[in-house]
Structures are given as structure tokens and as C-alpha cells.
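Re: your question from the hallway

Yes, I did run it. Sequences:
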Amino acid sequence: MKAKLVFAPLAALSLVPAVAQAVTYLSPAQAQALMFPGVALKPDFRTLTPDQIAAVQRDSGVNVLTKEIKAWRAANGGWFILDEVVGKHEFITFALALDASGVVRDVEILDYRESYGDQVRNPAWRAQFTGKRHGSALKLAGDIKNISGATLSSKHITDGVRRLLSTYALVLAPRAT
Amino acid sequence: MPSSSPPARLERARPLLGTRVTVRVGGLAEAAGHAAIEAAFAEVARVQALMSFHQADSDLCRLNRQAAGGPTPIDALTFTTVEKALRLAAASDGAFDPTVGAAVVRAGALPEPVGAPPADPDATWRDVRLHGAARAVSFARPLRLDLCGIAKGFAVDLAVQALQAAGASSGCVNAGGDLRVFGTSESIALRTGAAVGEAAPVLELEEGAAASSGGLDEPASPLMAVHLAGARRRRLHGRFACVVAPECVWADGLTKVVLSRGARAAPALRAFGARAYALGPGRAWRSYAA
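Structure:
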């Protein structure tokens, strides 16, 4: 085990863009290939009607932010759905894989954007560091790709999945009309 | 296209354990790398299914329903986790206590398990009994076992083992800030929740695990209020603690010990080969058991 605590000068805050995470884990095509290996997927995009939106919101208890449903139907009867959720600190694109009976097979996060904390986005807080010089000795082992601290919950994704399960049951499923 | 040359880096993320879990792997070709990542996620999902406070069919919920009535057999993985939780509770003289679940439920941060007998408010970790031969657990009085953080840390350890077993030369598993690194070094920004002066604390970690607790935004949450200021807690010694340890399971549990004991956490830190960086009330950083 080797570890040390260093202090990265916030100075010009060239660090902050690196700290405010923006990660692309998978492209939609990569996610499709990993979640439905060797299975053909056919786009089956839908636009929810106002009635369907109301029904999904009632069923899931989650607000519908977009009426466009980016869904692909798999040759084996499953579904691949792309969706987005917005949290207090984060913006997330995720993919949901359902099997032919509508059961969740997997959830993968495709894109994730997170701020280091409110103070970083706060212009007044940032202003106190402008004009300060970079520390000369500082050399990080690499880009900052990790944040450790108060745990961010994945509640928004959980809510998003629940909303999509309602969307599936009410709109996409074979028995839905 | 031949895929013999390893890609620079493969990384994926899934929502698990109530947070975002990311798995990074190095030294494997693309298909093998993705298989290793899936194996790592499977370990995390296994811990979630066995030790979730929210899923009624988990081992943990079964214990909270039945173990006050006698020895209740559980999965080997759950048994090991309870064993580790009790070991840390003993080493920290109860500063870490996996039976704070009842207080967490009272604070509204966890749901009351359906069908469980009313929890005895005086129950502690000493009321949790292990029955090794039967791989069972019993409670001397009704209580709410909560493996939350320590199970998350253990899941990270298991995921890292899965990557190593798959032949990865480097990797990093991060479960909402509980993370472990091997074969590479990582820079980890510490989210203390405070503007701590002119420099942001960054942990440089090579071969090992780290976990953090506290932060300005966290003590306000019911969960932290219970962990840090609850009935059996003393005064808060710091407001943010990051613990570095060879294994993530100890790093996570020890953060609570550091926050509640301050410098007196040093013996417990040493017992697990760990070191802590803590931000005190005076905004001063302290290092314990270096």
C-alpha cells in the first residue's frame, strides 16, 4: 500500500475541469453489442402521447421529462432502451436491457457528468482563487478520475429504470396497445 | 480486425449498492477486458443481493427477522462479512458498530424490516453471535444489523479479486468513493464539502484502498447523524475522514472510527495496516497511524 495526500492548488483552477467529471464509458453501439451479444436490434422509437405520459407518471411516480422513447427491439424479444436522468450534481445517460418478458437484465451507465461539488460551480467561490499562482511542486500521478467523499446516491437512475419499466408495460410490451 | 493488442483502458459503470460503481481494467484485450469487468460487477451484485437492507429476501433482512429467535444459516459471503464487521467492532471498542441499524431506521434513513421483532434499543454488536460450524448467526436480543458500508468495501475487494483472477495487470474499482487500485496509481479528489483554503486535497493512491466519510453536506443526513452523534456516539472529532488501507472493507469501516475517536483511532488503524487523513473542526488536516 502506497498513498500520500497532496494539495492541488486551486489557483487557476485548471484542475477543476479535470475534477468535474465527464466520462463516456460506452457508446450506444458498444452498449448494444455488450448487452445483446450477437443479437440483432431494430430501432423502434416511440413518441409518447399526453395520455401515455400521464399514465407512465401515475404508474411509476416519476416525472417524464421527454416524450421521445429511444427503444430498440431485439430479435430474441428483449428490449434495449436509452435514457437520461438529471440529478442535483450529475447528468447521466444509461441503457436498460430487458428480456422478452420485460425483466431487467442489465443497466449500464454510458455517460456521466458530475461536478466536484457546488462550491466549484459557484462563481464567487471560484473567483477567490483566480490570479493565484500554480504550485510549482505539484505533479499528480494522473488526471483525477475519482472522487471520494459523501456518497452520491444512484436514486435518479433507480427512478429512471422504474419509469422505463412503466413505459415498457404500458407502451412497448406486446400486450400493451 | 485482430484484437490481440490490449486497449489503453476499459472502463464501465453500473448503478449498484445504491451508488455508481465503476470498474476499470488494464492489460487485457478488449473481449477479455469486458468479461473481467462483467465478473467484477457480478461480485458486487452478489453482495447487493445478499446484504441489502432494502431487499426482503436478502440474508441481512432474514437475519433481522429471524436471528433473535435462534441461529439462522446464511451464505458464506454474508457470514464472512458479519465476521469482519464484528472484528472491526471489537478492534474499535464499538466505535464501529454494525447494530446501529435500529437507530438508522428510527432516523428514517432505512426502512423498518417487515416481520422483524421490535429492536431492543440497548442492543450492541456484542449481541451478535457467530456459529461457525453451522455458518449461522444469532442475536442475543432483537436488533437491526446493518452491513451497509462494510459490505460496500468488501464488494470492492471481491471485484478487484475478480479482475486479478481474470489476468488483469491493473485495475480500479470505485463504489461511490470506496475504491481500490492495483497495478497503477490513481489521483482521488477528496470531497470534503468545504472550501478548505487554496488547495484541493487529492489522495495519490498506489496499490491499496481508500474510503471517505463525513464532509459538510453529509453530517446533516439522518444516516450520518446516527453514525456520528447517535446514542452511543461521543463528540465528533473531525468532520471528514479518508482512510487508506490494503483492503477496502477496513478502509470503509475505519472512517467511522476516525470520525468518532480522532487520534484514539490509531490502534484500530494499526490493527488493519491503515492510515487516516482527517479534517478537523479547525480546518487542519491530521494524519493518524502513518
